[in-house]
Write a structure and sequence with these properties.
The complex is a heterodimer of chains A (115) and B (294). By secondary structure, chain A is of the alpha/beta class. Chain A has six helices and five strands; from the N terminus they run E-H-E-H-E-E-H-H-E-H-H. Chain A has one domain. Chain B has 294 residues and is of the alpha/beta class. Chain B starts with a strand and ends with a strand. The chains are: A alpha/beta (115), B alpha/beta (294).
């Protein structure tokens, strides 16, 4: 298993979409070989959803959550991260299962037209 | 053009006073701000007036803040939060209970995270654990990420905050002069409707009806849509958790999150979740966070 030290890669604040895209690009060659990857957050203070969306959530376009959980492992996550990651996964699963967001349109139209 | 800046607090009527000033200066090139009738300016006024000044300057105009006749309280506050220094007059004072006025022309993560943590959260006012501080810093960052990624503000983002010892209220106001959240929501839904029509899943009749409905989507309804779970205006990757996460945190701590954009106003507390229409238009987005430091 390959370990990516997130603090060395990004620093103590892993918050932006740019940070997430950097992480994604580092994970890509590892996962492409079939190797598992450990994301070690030791030293990371702050995480935010743009980072997780772009770095982790985007993988759900290529694999389902069960497969992702087998291939990507997390260590030393900041305490706020698990809850945030859960929402990011839910959000990403919804996004990729409905890529045209047809339900979003239908929901809002149904509401507006009925008013 | 001479603008007499009134006293501006951070309730809705006072936000609308600010929006009146913006409306009055929409096409102005040379603006003199006169503070002789102003008895107090809260953080929302400081961030918004600073941004407005930079917006006027970006159009080739000039802005003069006339400090003569400004009352001592306002002057002291504007010195402490650095507003006067930002507009060319060097003063040396402590920052008091202010979270300094900050101009962010671009997304500088290091500088903004330092502002969020050191200038806002780590001043000893907010009784939270290191883990909570880290969580709220991440949520606050998303306000800036959204502003830089989605607003298209030509002059960047403006921030200011204040701690009020009597009420134990800690505030932060983040302002951009971009396209606004409702515009992005309409744009996003409009593109989806066009996509639906182009692949044949919408009839011509529905296509026309939906287009009309979207173009009339009121600011306050569009804001409400943006706060719904699972809704985002991003098209190529998942997103849209920022405001919702922030709202969860702020309301969970008996705080208050307000968003002003176009004619829309959102207020989220632990007892209230309201979306209403303003009398005045704001050309951009203001996120106003108020936390109780009990």
């Amino acid at each position: 298993m390959k370990t990516l030290k997130i603090f060395d890669l990004i620093g103590e604040d892993c918050v932006s979409g740019d940070d997430g895209r950097l992480l994604y690009s580092q994970m890509e060659p590892v996962l492409a070989t079939g190797e598992q990857v450990e994301l070690d957050f030791f030293g990371v203070d702050t995480v935010a959803s743009p980072f997780f969306n772009a770095g982790i959530g985007r993988w759900l376009e290529k694999m389902d959550l069960k497969e992702l959980e087998k291939k990507v492992h997390f260590s030393h996550l900041p305490s706020s991260a698990p809850c945030l990651l859960k929402r990011v996964f839910e959000n990403a699963e919804s996004f990729y299962s409905d890529p045209n967001y047809s339900r979003a349109v239908e929901d809002v139209m149904a509401k507006l037209i009925s008013e | 053009m001479r603008i007499k800046v009134p006293t501006i607090h951070d309730d809705v009527e006072h936000f609308e006073r600010l929006f009146e000033i913006i409306e009055a200066t929409l096409t102005a090139t040379d603006v003199f701000f006169d503070f002789t009738e102003c008895e107090y300016l809260r953080q929302n006024a400081v961030a918004t007036l600073g941004g407005l000044a930079r917006l006027i300057e970006s159009r080739g105009g000039t802005v003069v803040f006339e400090w003569g006749g400004c009352c001592a309280t306002v002057l002291k506050n504007l010195k402490q939060n650095g507003f006067i220094r930002a507009f060319g007059k060097e003063v040396v004072v402590g920052i008091g209970n202010s979270i300094p006025y900050k101009e962010s022309p671009s997304k500088d993560k290091v500088s903004l995270m330092q502002y969020i943590k050191k200038d806002w959260l780590e001043r000893g006012w907010l009784n939270i654990t290191a883990d909570e501080r880290s969580a709220v810093a991440g949520n606050a960052w998303e306000v800036y990420e959204n502003a830089f990624e989605h607003s298209g503000s030509a002059v960047g983002v403006f921030s200011c905050g204040q701690f009020y010892p009597k009420t134990k209220e800690l505030t932060l106001c983040v302002v951009d002069f971009g396209v606004g959240i409702p515009h992005n929501v309409r744009n996003f839904l409009g593109q989806l409707v066009e996509l639906g029509f182009s692949v044949g899943s919408l009839s011509e009749e529905d296509h026309q009806e939906y287009k009309e409905v979207i173009s009339n989507f009121a600011s306050e309804d569009a804001l409400e849509w943006a706060f719904l779970e699972g809704k985002s205006t991003r098209k190529s990757s998942p997103g849209g958790l920022g405001l919702k996460e922030l709202a969860r945190f702020v309301s969970g701590r008996n705080g208050r999150l307000e968003v002003y954009s176009e004619y829309g106003r959102a207020v989220i507390t632990n007892q209230q979740r309201s979306f209403s229409r303003l009398k005045k238009f704001f050309p951009g987005t203001i996120v106003h966070i108020s936390l109780l430091c009990n």
